[in-house]
Amino acid sequence: MNSRHRPIATAVLCFVLIGIGLSSRRAVQAEPQPATKPLRLRVLSYNIHHGEGVDRRLDLERIARVINSVEPDVVALQEVDQKTGRTGKVDQPAELSRLTGMKVVFGRNIDFEGGGYGNAVLSKLPFERHKNHHLPSFDQGEQRGVLAVELRPEGTDETILFLCTHLDHRAADRERLASAKAINEFVRRRPDVPALLAGDLNAVPDSRVLETFRKEWTAVADQEQPTVPVAEPKRQIDYILIRPRHRWKVIEVRVLDEAVASDHRAIFSVLELVPAAK
Questions:
Q1: Is 60 exposed, middle or buried (0-12, 13-18, 19+ CB in 10 A)?
Q2: Contact 149/123 with Cβ under 8 angstroms?
Q3: 278 in a domain, yes or no?
Q4: Is residue 123 classed exposed, middle or buried when 0-12, 13-18 and 19+ CB atoms within 10 A define those classes?
Q5: Does a structural domain hold residue 50?
Q6: Among 133, 158, 152, which Cα is nearest to 144's?
Q7: Helix %, strand %, coil % for the chain, to 5?
Q8: Do 219 and 260 share a domain, yes or no?
């Protein structure tokens, strides 16, 4: 090459290389970043009345069909028998696990007719640990409990605390109030852990019991969601509660339209876990 053309050729080559570099950087900058898919949970709470429907039939397969109808990820069950005489010595937690294809843990609150009676949790999510805690009991009432389960969704390093409970049914609210305070105190020890509380609280939304729960929890629905009496529900006593509020987005809430399998209707919600602020 003629030496007098070299500066021109060199300048052209530099512009070409700079252009290639800019194009490469633009390509890198324009490349879409993979979005983190938000975690959605389908949550059901159901008082199953030990599998006995309002037609007085014991039918766990019918209970399982109600559960399966909404394809839940986690289910809080109340009034569950385990190998009791009245329900034919059937291990109801194990049988419902088989019928739904979900893992199960059982929280035994009382001995009853040769077996146990209490609450259970079904889950598609892995259980990390679980423990049943007895709640305050007054005036020789039925021992109540809260079954605390730690769930670890796949693809996340977060733990979700899922609590299932069934509170005292008597007219006086002394024991229910004490239980609400005990549950609130329990979750205050882990303020940053996203948590759900589901169950039969035997209290209506404007009660002192729900007022106590609202100090720590938020109901998934702003409006009352009646669950009893089962034929024509007029009062809500079954709930799904969330905490802390900013970690949960409510996508859907409804009471299932099934009035025979149990003496309660089940309440269902779809929830989205909001990523923690960094």
A1: buried
A2: yes
A3: no
A4: buried
A5: yes
A6: 133
A7: 25, 35, 40
A8: yes
Per-residue tokens: 135: 């709640």
Q: Could you tell me which of 101, 52, 41 has the C-alpha nearest to residue 80?
A: 52
Judgement on whether residues 8 and 125 belong to the same structural domain of the protein: no
25 and 104 in a single domain? The answer is: no
Instruction: pLDDT band for 35, please (50, 70, 90 cuts).
Output: low
Do the beta carbons of residue 115 and residue 81 sit within 8 Å?
Answer: yes
Phi, psi of 53 (to 5 degrees): -85, 175
Tokens at 55, concatenated? 């037609």
Side chain identity at 131, as an amino acid letter? K
Type of residue numbered 190: R
CB atoms within 10 A of CB 155: 8
DSSP 235: B
Which range marks the domain in which residue 10 is found?
A: 1-31
Find the mean pLDDT for residues 20-47. Answer: 65
Instruction: Give the other-Cβ count within 10 Å of 133's Cβ.
Output: 15
Q: What angle do CA 272, 275, 277 make, to 5 degrees?
A: 145
d(CA 16, CA 14): 5
Are 143 and 192 found together in one domain?
Answer: yes
**Tens digits of per-residue pLDDT, 135-165?**
999 999 999 999 999 999 987 888 999 999 9
pLDDT in tens, 112-141: 999 999 999 999 999 999 999 999 999 999
